[in-house]
């Protein structure tokens, strides 16, 4: 059975974050009434690479960190844990080969609906069937 490369990449990223982030709960979908801080892997953008017969894809995976209040220090500390858990690390998932993630972009902003801060980091990963 073929493995969905997007699902595999997201699952590998979530597993690495759950192992490496200690100051926030990590999810692919945040449960109702979940308090902050959280780290969520809500989306990825896939682009085929490598030519006509290649099944390799480049995935840009977004990791969103949210913390209550206005302490940028708390947000940046968790974002550092995210970077340490992913950037350049070996990821694995059955049935696929994953490159080491590379941090492509990072940004912070104030949540307009809550007294909270949000950080977004985008990691680039190449995924292909094993």
Q: What would you say this structure looks like, in words?
A:
It is a single chain. Helices cover 24% and strands 40% of the residues. The chain has two helices and six strands, in the order αβββαβββ. α1 (5-20) crosses α2. It is elongated. The two termini are 12 Å apart.
What's the SSE blueprint?
Blueprint: H1 5-20, E1 25-27, E2 38-48, E3 57-68, H2 72-86, E4 96-98, E5 102-110, E6 116-129
Parallel strand pairs: 1-2
Antiparallel strand pairs: 2-3, 3-6, 4-6, 5-6
Helix pairs in contact: 1-2
Specify the biggest β-sheet. 6 strands, mixed
Portion in helices: 10-25%
Straight-line N-to-C gap: 12 Å
For the secondary structure, the number of strands is 6
Question: Approximately how much beta-strand content do the residues carry?
Answer: 35-45%
Mean model confidence by pLDDT: 95
Given the structure, what is the number of helices?
2
Uncertain segments are: none
Observed structural traits:
alpha+beta, 6 strands, 130 residues, 24% helix, 6-stranded mixed sheet, elongated, 2 helices, single chain
How would you summarize what this structure contains?
With 130 residues, this protein is α+β, with helices and mostly antiparallel strands. The protein has helices at 5-20, 72-86, and strands at residues 25-27, 38-48, 57-68, 96-98, 102-110, 116-129.
């Amino acid at each position: 059975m073929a493995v969905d490369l997007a699902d595999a990449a997201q699952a590998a990223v979530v597993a690495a974050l759950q192992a490496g982030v200690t100051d926030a709960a990590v999810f692919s979908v945040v449960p109702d009434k979940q308090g902050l801080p959280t780290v969520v892997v809500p989306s990825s953008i896939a682009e085929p690479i490598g030519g006509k017969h290649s099944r390799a894809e480049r995935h840009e995976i977004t990791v969103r960190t949210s913390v209550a209040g206005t302490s940028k220090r708390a947000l940046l500390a968790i974002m550092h844990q995210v970077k340490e858990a992913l950037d350049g690390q070996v990821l694995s998932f059955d049935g696929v080969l994953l490159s080491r993630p590379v941090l492509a972009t990072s940004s912070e902003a104030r949540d307009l609906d809550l007294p909270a801060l949000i950080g977004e980091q985008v990691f680039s990963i190449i995924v292909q069937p094993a």
